[in-house]
Amino acid sequence: MRQFLLIFYLFLSSPLSIKGDQGFIAILYLHNGQYVSSDSVYTFYNLDGTYFDSLKSREGNEPTFSKIAKGDVVSYYPNMMIYVFFCKLSHDDKVLVRIGGQWKKISTNAPFSIQSMKEYLLSLDILLKVDDIVYYGKDKIKIKKKLIRHIIDVKGDYVAIEICKKKMWFRWKKNYKVLPDRLIYE
Q1: Can you tell me the distance from the alpha carbon of 55 to that of 110, in angstroms, rounded to the nearest whole number?
Q2: Neighbour tally for 52: CB within 10 Å
Q3: Considering 50, 99, 101, 179, which has the largest number of Cβ atoms within 10 A of its Cβ?
Q4: How far, in whole angstroms, is CA 106 from its chain's centroid?
Q5: Rounded average pLDDT per 10-residue block, the chain, 186 residues
Q6: Cα separation values, 161 from 25, 52, 150, 169, 184, Å
Q7: Closest CA to 157 of 112, 121, 103, 114
Q8: Is the whole-model pTM more than 0.85?
Q9: Residue 94 and residue 75: Cα distance in Å, rounded?
Q10: 3-state secondary structure of 71
């Protein structure tokens, strides 16, 4: 039920304008069954119009692609087959997604939605691993055991979480490079 609610929430929430560089994300749905066709295809093109790669799921199987690495996306939810990319609107009103360090045009026969990055992150938890560093004011604190905390605020490359009733900051990305497997929907 929670998975359905996440998909429903993500699908219905999209801003009116997506001008800007990395303040928005595109959510691509590959889930089979009642949410998305099992033959969903997202095709990515270089800015010059040449083919780059495709992301597709046939018959509800694990999505396939050749050039898109796991670290090139903001987040991936394998049990729901949802991919999340940074996005922006091009000068000719085409949606661009960031794959790795480059912007690509997207063409698709399947649904996707656009959402503000902050709104998206505030709906998630984040996984902190042993030896991760969190910041409390000027203090750096090393995480001693694996923790999952809800994201309570977002500023640039940092998300705020609460540990021991204190608001602490964690760097979840550096520019476009995201720490993989950290954003969690629980």
Answers
A1: 11
A2: 18
A3: 99
A4: 16
A5: 45 41 80 56 93 78 74 81 88 88 89 91 95 96 96 95 96 84 80
A6: 21, 37, 6, 6, 13
A7: 121
A8: no
A9: 22
A10: helix
